[in-house]
Amino acid sequence: MKLSRRARRMARHHRRHRQRYTFNLVSLMDIFTILVFFLLVNSADVQTLPNPKELTLPDSTAETEGRQSVVVMVTREGINLGADHIISIEDALASEEATIPALSQALAAAEMPAAAAPPPEPAAEGGDDAAEAGPPQREVTIMADEKLPYRLLKKVMLSCTAADFGRISLAVMREGQG
């Protein structure tokens, strides 16, 4: 069958302008590279505290996020500094001292995490003396079970202060999060 002149012209036109569509991989790689860098930069801000099953944190309406620091865990069985067991609860409560010497010694020897370097202290308004501002204070986070007696928590906090940990934070569970 013979094609008309118009049909041949249209067929020629379609053959000439036929394109093969492909993915532009350069643009796709650019998008994924930016995405990877974004995720790497933003993932460094996350801090997770250990969450043992035998520890129930008290509920709170705290809005500030915790910072990375030395962690003291006070469970129903004992007091731990990181993964090290320091003293049992019975021994700590039986002691007549205001502090827990074993905890103070362990904290004094504890290394602060590298990412937990304290922020620089603002200079005193009265002068330029660095001695007035004092040394930067170290930070500690206390994770205590909600059913522990307050006198034990007070001993732990006094022991932290005795070991030159001036910034003490208490770990809590945000309401609605647990």
Tell me how many strands there are: 7
Q: From N to C, what is the helix and strand string?
A: HHEEEEHHHEHEE
Strand content: 15-25%
Q: How far is the N terminus from the C terminus?
A: 79 Å
**Derived structural class:** alpha/beta
Mean pLDDT: 76
Query: Main sheet, how many strands, which sense, barrel?
Result: 5 strands, mixed
**From the alpha-carbon coordinates, what is the Rg to the nearest angstrom?**
31 Å
Index terms:
2 domains; alpha/beta; 5-stranded mixed sheet; about 180 residues
What would you note in describing this structure?
There is one protein chain. The chain is α/β, with parallel strands linked by helices. The protein folds into 2 domains: about 5-45, no CATH class; about 60-120 and about 135-175, no CATH class. The protein is built from 6 helices and 7 strands, in the order H-H-E-E-E-E-H-H-H-E-H-E-E. The strands form 2 sheets. It has a 5-stranded mixed sheet with strand order 4-3-2-5-6. It has a two-stranded parallel sheet with strand order 1-7. Helix 4 crosses helix 6. Mean pLDDT is about 75; it is low at about 125-130.
